[in-house]
Amino acid sequence: MEQQIHDFLEYIQSSKGYAHNTVEAYRNDLTQFLNFALNERPQLLNWARVDRPLLLTFLIHLKERKYSAASVARKVAVIKTFFHFLLERHWVTDDPTVKLESPKVEKRLPQILTPQEVEYLLAAPAKHGTPKGLRDRAILELLYASGLRVSELVSLDADDVDLESKEVGCQGRGDKQRTLPISDRAAEALANYLARGRPVLTGETDEPALFVNPRGDRLTRQGLWLIIKEYVKESQITAQVTPHTLRHSFAVHLLTRGADLQNVQQLLGHSNITTTQVYTRLTEGDRSEPNPGPVTLT
User: Fold this and answer.
1) Distance (Å, rounded) from C-alpha 147 to C-alpha 172?
2) Up-side HSE of residue 7: CA atoms within 13 Å toward CB?
3) What does pTM read for this prediction?
4) How many Cα atoms within 13 Å fall on the side-chain side of residue 103?
5) Alpha helices in the chain (DSSP H)
6) What is the mean pLDDT of the chain?
7) Which of 53, 136, 250, 279 fits as disulfide partner to 147, beta carbons 3.0 to 4.6 Å?
């Protein structure tokens, strides 16, 4: 049973192009369910023995432990996808998840910043003339100028930046490549960082990463999140900010200025335009109205 989980994870990574973090999330959910199933039925020998009552018992188990509706819905979706995989390979003859219902999850609009709040945030690192300050200004300017996902930004290498053409090449989900234009401000911030910040941080190492930590190693997603939190606090921004807030703000501000929806879709790397259409709801009202909060839109 563990081997078939392994085969499934290899399939979604190599054939479907799922990101590493997504694959790990699937691994955790499936391992959790397998451990629960074996605890409930120690004689369980294969996935074909999993039935609807066992799945419902698992959902009750999650509810008793006060998992959020969103977490339960994600786990149900993962298990459904896994059993569909098993069925396609004839490793099971029936799919017990067919009529398994997920809890309803309230969809909330993505949190965005006003243009003024963005200016406050982007200006914060400029107060620090250190290599770290140069790096952080380049990070924030690039996030807002490109709409890059956090995972895409930390994956960038220095060679991915073309300051002459003011473009950045990135590898998105499913290994899809896209080239993104950047603003003059972002290009200037990157030029200053590459000339006076990055050489100090990398030292004698030959690290290819565009953005590095004080040890000269590639910056992680967690490290980037701490940087954003630092400047949100310094800027005294009271809005709820997540790692993707600048990406969401980039999209909404583009649409507000009259950008074409399909063009914004391409810039964001969305496979389906319906994902991008969520942002249009935020261009119809004023930010003075309460924002419902963050969403898992990426």
Assistant:
1) 12
2) 11
3) 0.65
4) 17
5) 2-14, 20-40, 52-64, 69-88, 115-123, 131-146, 150-155, 184-192, 198-202, 221-234, 245-256, 261-268, 273-277
6) 87
7) 250
Task: Give the chain's domains with CATH numbers.
Answer: 2-88 (1.10.150), 115-282 (1.10.443.10)
Please state whether 81 falls in left (phi above 0), alpha (psi between -120 and 50) or beta: alpha
- Spatial distance between the Cα atoms of 12 and 15, rounded to a whole number of angstroms: 6
Sign of CA dihedral 158, 113, 269, 173: positive
Tokens representing 291 are 């924002």
For residue 143, pLDDT beyond 50: yes
Render pLDDT for 92-129 as a digit per residue (tens, 0 to 9): 999 999 888 877 766 667 788 999 999 999 999 988 78
20-71: pLDDT as tens digits: 888 899 999 999 999 999 999 999 989 999 999 999 999 999 999 988 888 8
Angle at 257 between CA 254 and CA 261, to 5 degrees: 55
Q: Which amino acid is residue 28, in one-letter code?
A: N
